[in-house]
């Protein structure tokens, strides 16, 4: 399982954004969550999923504006499941707690931890480094870059995006290149596969 824990940055200055993020993520990913998105303590939220693509997508959404430190824990969850994430326990939650603490000190405010052997922890560190590169790439994207990237992710062709934005097709192409859209899109399937392999190995080696 993947447990994603996000802790708001500078909440005392900016107010509590937890409710808004829970609503946003629940709307996008509710069908892929094992338990409903939950506000666990103060300005911290927690989500649980079996899906590597969903875990990666949540990380990228939550880190987009630099307002959250995001930790992902990979491991098991004690069964039967309770009715809320804040009531659940297991090695994935312990790993997520360690990860979000590390994320507060990390570039990109992201960290990944896997419960289990030293070898598994080493593999998690490798995956963490690659995910962080994508997070940092996205941090450099301008508002104009995000406009065109969001249109492309919604399924538009470049000519259609140009018409929506009232710019030339060449301008859309230039914005996509500057936004490093293709680099991110090419990286996502590989990262999803690596996360899925990490989770499968964690399940395989979990104590009975």
- CATH class category of the domain at 2-117 and 197-205: Alpha Beta
CATH architecture of the domain at 2-117 and 197-205: 2-Layer Sandwich
Number of DSSP E strands? 5
Strand-and-helix sequence, N→C? EHHEEHEHEHHHHH
What fold name stands as the CATH topology of the domain at 2-117 and 197-205? Alpha-Beta Plaits
Low-confidence stretches: none
Q: From the alpha-carbon coordinates, what is the Rg to the nearest angstrom?
A: 18 Å
The number of helices is 9
Percentage of β-strand residues: 15-25%
Major beta sheet, strand line-up: 2-3-1-4-5
Q: First CA to last CA: what distance? A: 15 Å
Characterize the biggest β-sheet.
5 strands, mixed
Shape: globular
Summing up helix and strand content along with how strands pair, one would put the structural category as alpha+beta
Mean pLDDT, to the nearest integer, reads: 92
Helix content: 55-70%
Task: Give the structure's gist in a few sentences.
The chain is α+β, with helices and mostly antiparallel strands and 208 residues long. The protein has helices at residues 11-14, 18-29, 52-63, 91-103, 118-139, 143-153, 158-165, 169-179, 181-205, and strands at 2-8, 33-41, 44-49, 68-74, 110-114. The relative contact order is 0.14.
Give a structural overview.
By secondary structure, the protein is of the alpha+beta class. It has a domain at 2-117 and 197-205: 2-Layer Sandwich (Alpha-Beta Plaits), CATH 3.30.70. The chain is built from 9 helices and 5 strands, in the order βααββαβαβααααα. A 5-stranded mixed beta sheet has the order 2-3-1-4-5.
């Amino acid at each position: 399982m993947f447990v994603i824990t996000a802790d708001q940055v500078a909440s005392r200055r900016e107010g509590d954004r937890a409710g808004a993020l829970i609503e946003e993520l629940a709307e996008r990913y509710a069908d892929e969550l094992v338990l409903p998105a939950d506000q666990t303590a103060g300005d911290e939220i927690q989500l649980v999923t079996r899906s590597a693509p969903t875990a990666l997508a949540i990380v990228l959404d939550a880190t987009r504006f630099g307002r959250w430190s995001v930790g992902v824990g990979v491991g098991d969850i004690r069964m039967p499941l309770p009715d809320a994430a804040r009531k659940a326990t297991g090695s994935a939650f312990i790993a997520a707690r360690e990860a979000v603490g590390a994320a507060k000190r990390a570039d990109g405010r992201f960290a990944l931890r896997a419960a289990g052997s030293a070898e598994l922890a080493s593999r998690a560190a490798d995956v963490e480094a690659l995910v962080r590169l994508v997070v940092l790439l996205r941090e450099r994207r301008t508002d104009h870059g995000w406009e065109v990237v969001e249109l492309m992710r919604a399924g538009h062709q470049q000519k259609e995006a140009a018409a929506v934005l009232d710019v030339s097709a060449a301008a859309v192409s230039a914005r996509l290149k500057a936004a490093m859209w293709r680099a991110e899109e090419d990286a996502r399937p590989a990262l999803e596969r690596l996360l899925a392999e990490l989770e499968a190995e964690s399940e395989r080696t979990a104590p009975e």
